[in-house]
Write a structure and sequence with these properties.
Blueprint lengths: L3 H4 L3 E6 L3 E6 L7 E4 L14 E2 L2 E2 L2 H15 L7 E6 L5 H14 L4 E6 H9 L4 E6 L4 E7 L2 E2 L7 E3 L3 H11 L8 H11 L14 E4 L5 E4 L2 H4 L17 H9 L7 H5 L2 E4 L8 H10 L13 H5 L1 H9 L10 E2 H7 L1 H7 L4
Parallel strand pairs: 1-6, 6-7, 8-14
Antiparallel strand pairs: 1-2, 2-3, 4-5, 7-15, 8-9, 9-10, 9-11, 12-13
Length: about 350
């Protein structure tokens, strides 16, 4: 990317989660497309999410997702670079596989994969902090220092606490919710769920929720009670620390000299953290376990929805990342495994 032409190049930015995926061209404020991760080239929703719990579980599906992004955005791959987010816990083997898929199946001249935690922080305007990423199938806590997640040390923690566990708990508390689709449950969480400031908060009133087929369903205190799973999972038989304890445990696996930089930017990410009241409750819970001053970052609603993609859109345009791109000529000469190590893909 040393020539003027290369410096002006625009990348295709792709963020694939286990529930949603977003893609579009770099330099934009929002992705051009957001779809369910099960979306297919044929326009159906019966595909398999290519990434699950931080692992690349279906290479063919990942290849199809890239094809779909290219077609939907309407680009010529040979004229663009490809920037992909990757789960921070993804193995080097899977990162190498992403390079194989990019260069063997497509004509992109260059590729870069970056940790979702790092991208989230870049979106927030920070390069150091602790990311609390509550995904659809698991929660991951990642300390990031000067843009780099602390991969390889015990401070990166995972937990079974997740969006789907809240869905299952709500269905258990309210049997009329059984049989609803994942998408319906996601809509209910967005529209009706809330996080109380304390576990002992008063009940909320029963409200009606209209489903896509125009039928209505009543949702009561389970919309509040189920979110307690995030902070007191042991009350529900889940053997995991709560979100506040995960952050505390992660922090105390890092050199104490780095604590101040990390907790100055505590970043909640993932759809579940958008439930009203979450950030306030997290602040209150952290006050009880942290001895240092900290700040929970509270992004705008539009940024929260596409935080990782926006971070990728920003990074793709930064000159400071030019040396990190893997170019086709390097890939062909040295192979994907060496590129993962040489380019410090993170």
């Amino acid at each position: 990317m040393s020539s003027d032409e290369d410096e002006e190049a625009v990348a295709l930015v792709l963020d694939v989660g286990s529930y949603y995926m977003s893609y579009g061209v770099s330099g934009e404020d929002t992705p051009g497309f957001t779809k369910l991760a099960t979306s297919t080239l044929e326009g159906t929703l019966d595909g398999k999410a290519p990434i699950h719990k931080g692992k690349l579980v279906d290479k063919e599906r990942m290849d199809d997702v890239i094809k779909m992004a290219v077609e939907d955005v309407g680009i010529r791959p040979e004229d663009k670079y490809l920037l992909m987010s990757n789960p921070t816990t993804m193995s080097n083997e899977d990162k190498a596989a992403l390079l194989d898929i990019t260069f063997e199946g497509h004509s992109f001249p260059g590729c870069l994969t970056i940790s979702q935690a790092s991208l989230g922080l870049y979106c927030s305007g920070n390069s150091s902090g602790i990311c609390l990423d509550i995904g659809y199938h698991q929660t991951t806590v990642v300390p990031v220092y000067e843009g780099y997640p602390l991969i390889g040390c015990p401070s990166i923690l995972t937990s079974p606490i997740s969006g789907v566990q809240i869905d299952e708990l709500m269905k258990k508390l309210n049997p009329t919710l059984k049989g609803l689709s994942d998408d319906d449950m996601t809509s209910i969480k967005k529209g009706l769920c809330q996080v109380s400031e304390t576990a002992m908060s008063s009940q909320i009133e029963t409200r009606e929720f209209e489903l896509p087929d125009k039928s209505k369903i009543s949702v009561g205190d389970e919309a509040r009670f189920a979110t307690e799973l995030l902070f007191s999972p042991h009350h529900f038989g889940v053997k995991s620390p709560g979100c506040q304890e995960l952050i505390y445990n992660s922090l105390h696996k890092v050199d104490p000299d780095g604590h101040k930089d990390l907790i100055s930017s505590v970043l909640p990410m993932g759809g579940t953290t958008r439930i009203p009241g979450f950030s306030k409750r997290l602040e209150l819970e952290l006050l009880g376990v942290l001895n240092h001053e900290f700040k929970v970052l509270n992004q705008s609603e539009s940024d929260k929805e596409h935080m990782k993609w926006i971070g990728g859109s920003i990074v793709a345009e930064l000159s400071t990342f030019q040396e990190m791109w893997v170019f086709r000529s390097e890939y062909e000469e040295e192979g994907p495994e060496r590129m993962v190590k040489k380019k410090l893909l993170f």
